[in-house]
Amino acid sequence: MSVSSAESSLVVVLVKAGRTKIRYPARLVRDDGTRITVRAPWAAPGVRDFGFVRFEPGDVFTEHYWRDSWFAVKEVRTAAGGLKGWYCDITRPAVLRNGELVVEDLDLDLWVSADGSSVLRLDEDEFEASGLAGRDPAAADAARRALDELELLARTDGLDRAFEYGPAEADESDGSG
Q1: Burial class (CB in 10 A: 0-12, 13-18, 19+), 49
Q2: How do residues 3-57 score in pLDDT, each as one tens digit?
Q3: How far apart are CA 155 and CA 85, in angstroms?
Q4: 174 — pLDDT class (breaks 50, 70, 90)
Q5: Tens-place pLDDT, residues 109-123
Q6: Cβ proximity of 86 and 159 under 8 Å
Q7: What is the largest CA-CA distance in the chain?
Q8: Which residues are bridge partners to 75 per DSSP?
Q9: What are the CB-based long-range contacts (under 8 Å, 24+) for 41-46?
Q10: E-only strand ranges, 17-118
Q11: CB 64 within 8 A of CB 35
Protein backbone atom coordinates (compact mmCIF):
# COMPACT_ATOMS: atom_id res chain seq x y z
CA MET A 1 0.00 0.00 0.00
CA SER A 2 1.57 3.27 -1.04
CA VAL A 3 0.66 6.25 1.10
CA SER A 4 1.02 9.84 -0.08
CA SER A 5 3.16 12.05 2.17
CA ALA A 6 0.27 14.46 2.64
CA GLU A 7 -2.09 11.77 3.93
CA SER A 8 -0.78 10.83 7.32
CA SER A 9 1.37 11.48 10.33
CA LEU A 10 2.41 9.20 13.13
CA VAL A 11 4.60 9.07 16.21
CA VAL A 12 7.94 7.23 16.15
CA VAL A 13 8.63 5.51 19.47
CA LEU A 14 12.22 4.38 20.02
CA VAL A 15 12.48 1.84 22.83
CA LYS A 16 15.76 0.77 24.42
CA ALA A 17 16.20 -1.74 27.24
CA GLY A 18 12.44 -1.87 27.76
CA ARG A 19 12.00 1.91 28.19
CA THR A 20 10.96 4.61 25.79
CA LYS A 21 14.11 6.51 24.80
CA ILE A 22 12.39 9.12 22.62
CA ARG A 23 9.03 9.82 20.95
CA TYR A 24 8.61 12.25 18.09
CA PRO A 25 6.08 13.12 15.42
CA ALA A 26 6.85 12.19 11.83
CA ARG A 27 5.14 12.46 8.48
CA LEU A 28 4.42 9.15 6.79
CA VAL A 29 6.00 9.24 3.33
CA ARG A 30 5.25 5.69 2.25
CA ASP A 31 4.19 2.30 3.57
CA ASP A 32 4.41 -0.54 1.07
CA GLY A 33 3.48 -3.21 3.60
CA THR A 34 7.10 -4.13 4.33
CA ARG A 35 9.04 -0.85 4.44
CA ILE A 36 7.73 2.21 6.23
CA THR A 37 9.34 5.55 5.38
CA VAL A 38 8.80 8.65 7.48
CA ARG A 39 10.27 12.14 7.52
CA ALA A 40 10.93 14.15 10.65
CA PRO A 41 13.08 17.01 11.86
CA TRP A 42 15.88 16.35 14.35
CA ALA A 43 13.88 15.47 17.46
CA ALA A 44 16.36 15.76 20.33
CA PRO A 45 16.96 19.07 22.06
CA GLY A 46 19.97 21.09 20.88
CA VAL A 47 23.01 19.81 19.01
CA ARG A 48 24.48 16.32 19.25
CA ASP A 49 28.10 16.24 18.11
CA PHE A 50 29.42 12.73 17.56
CA GLY A 51 32.78 13.91 16.26
CA PHE A 52 32.15 12.45 12.81
CA VAL A 53 28.78 14.25 12.34
CA ARG A 54 26.64 16.87 14.09
CA PHE A 55 22.88 16.52 14.34
CA GLU A 56 21.28 19.88 14.95
CA PRO A 57 17.99 21.74 14.84
CA GLY A 58 16.82 22.05 11.24
CA ASP A 59 18.28 18.71 10.15
CA VAL A 60 15.77 16.50 8.35
CA PHE A 61 15.72 12.73 8.75
CA THR A 62 14.13 10.47 6.14
CA GLU A 63 13.85 7.23 8.06
CA HIS A 64 13.31 3.78 6.58
CA TYR A 65 11.98 1.01 8.84
CA TRP A 66 11.19 -2.59 7.94
CA ARG A 67 8.67 -5.02 9.33
CA ASP A 68 10.92 -7.93 8.32
CA SER A 69 14.48 -6.64 8.85
CA TRP A 70 16.58 -5.92 11.91
CA PHE A 71 17.65 -2.36 11.04
CA ALA A 72 16.52 1.18 10.33
CA VAL A 73 18.29 3.45 7.85
CA LYS A 74 18.06 7.20 8.43
CA GLU A 75 19.14 9.59 5.71
CA VAL A 76 20.27 12.84 7.34
CA ARG A 77 20.14 16.18 5.53
CA THR A 78 20.75 19.77 6.56
CA ALA A 79 17.86 22.23 6.60
CA ALA A 80 19.10 23.42 3.18
CA GLY A 81 18.94 19.86 1.81
CA GLY A 82 22.63 18.95 1.85
CA LEU A 83 23.26 15.28 2.52
CA LYS A 84 25.22 14.59 5.73
CA GLY A 85 25.03 10.79 5.51
CA TRP A 86 23.15 7.81 6.90
CA TYR A 87 22.75 6.82 10.52
CA CYS A 88 21.67 3.20 10.81
CA ASP A 89 20.21 1.65 13.93
CA ILE A 90 20.17 -2.09 14.48
CA THR A 91 16.66 -2.82 15.74
CA ARG A 92 14.07 -5.50 16.00
CA PRO A 93 11.61 -5.38 13.09
CA ALA A 94 9.36 -2.31 13.31
CA VAL A 95 5.74 -2.48 14.42
CA LEU A 96 3.15 0.06 13.27
CA ARG A 97 -0.03 0.16 15.35
CA ASN A 98 -2.52 2.79 16.44
CA GLY A 99 -0.57 5.62 14.82
CA GLU A 100 2.72 4.67 16.50
CA LEU A 101 5.78 3.22 14.81
CA VAL A 102 7.49 1.27 17.59
CA VAL A 103 11.13 0.32 17.15
CA GLU A 104 13.37 -1.45 19.67
CA ASP A 105 16.98 -0.22 19.48
CA LEU A 106 19.55 -3.00 20.03
CA ASP A 107 22.53 -0.66 20.62
CA LEU A 108 24.54 -1.43 17.47
CA ASP A 109 24.79 1.42 14.95
CA LEU A 110 26.47 2.23 11.66
CA TRP A 111 27.38 5.66 10.28
CA VAL A 112 28.00 6.20 6.57
CA SER A 113 29.22 9.60 5.39
CA ALA A 114 27.53 11.33 2.44
CA ASP A 115 30.31 10.40 0.03
CA GLY A 116 30.55 6.84 1.40
CA SER A 117 34.23 7.23 2.29
CA SER A 118 33.61 6.78 6.02
CA VAL A 119 31.77 3.70 7.28
CA LEU A 120 31.87 3.41 11.07
CA ARG A 121 30.58 0.60 13.27
CA LEU A 122 29.37 2.13 16.52
CA ASP A 123 28.45 1.06 20.04
CA GLU A 124 29.64 -2.55 19.84
CA ASP A 125 30.77 -2.22 23.47
CA GLU A 126 27.26 -1.11 24.52
CA PHE A 127 25.79 -4.06 22.64
CA GLU A 128 28.04 -6.53 24.46
CA ALA A 129 27.31 -4.86 27.82
CA SER A 130 23.54 -5.00 27.18
CA GLY A 131 23.46 -8.73 27.90
CA LEU A 132 21.24 -9.44 24.88
CA ALA A 133 23.43 -12.38 23.84
CA GLY A 134 22.64 -14.11 27.14
CA ARG A 135 18.95 -13.16 27.30
CA ASP A 136 18.07 -13.69 23.64
CA PRO A 137 20.88 -15.33 21.63
CA ALA A 138 18.78 -15.49 18.45
CA ALA A 139 18.11 -11.74 18.57
CA ALA A 140 21.79 -11.01 19.25
CA ASP A 141 22.78 -13.12 16.23
CA ALA A 142 20.18 -11.37 14.05
CA ALA A 143 21.50 -7.99 15.21
CA ARG A 144 25.10 -8.87 14.37
CA ARG A 145 24.07 -10.19 10.94
CA ALA A 146 22.08 -7.00 10.26
CA LEU A 147 25.09 -4.82 11.11
CA ASP A 148 27.31 -6.92 8.82
CA GLU A 149 24.69 -6.71 6.03
CA LEU A 150 24.41 -2.91 6.28
CA GLU A 151 28.17 -2.46 6.37
CA LEU A 152 28.56 -4.63 3.26
CA LEU A 153 25.84 -2.63 1.45
CA ALA A 154 27.48 0.64 2.46
CA ARG A 155 30.89 -0.49 1.20
CA THR A 156 29.63 -1.98 -2.08
CA ASP A 157 26.30 -0.66 -3.43
CA GLY A 158 26.12 2.43 -1.22
CA LEU A 159 23.12 3.13 0.99
CA ASP A 160 21.82 5.82 -1.37
CA ARG A 161 21.23 3.21 -4.08
CA ALA A 162 20.37 0.29 -1.82
CA PHE A 163 17.36 1.98 -0.23
CA GLU A 164 16.15 4.46 -2.82
CA TYR A 165 12.66 4.33 -4.25
CA GLY A 166 11.97 4.29 -7.95
CA PRO A 167 11.55 7.52 -9.96
CA ALA A 168 7.81 7.76 -9.18
CA GLU A 169 8.58 8.29 -5.49
CA ALA A 170 11.54 10.66 -5.90
CA ASP A 171 9.52 13.71 -4.86
CA GLU A 172 8.55 12.02 -1.59
CA SER A 173 11.89 10.48 -0.63
CA ASP A 174 14.50 13.04 -1.69
CA GLY A 175 14.71 14.70 1.72
CA SER A 176 13.43 18.02 0.47
CA GLY A 177 10.67 18.07 3.08
Answers
A1: exposed
A2: 444 459 999 999 998 999 999 999 999 999 999 999 999 988 889 999 999 999 9
A3: 13
A4: very low
A5: 999 999 999 999 999
A6: yes
A7: 45
A8: 62, 86
A9: 43/12
A10: 19-31, 35-41, 48-49, 54-55, 60-66, 71-77, 83-91, 95-97, 100-113
A11: yes
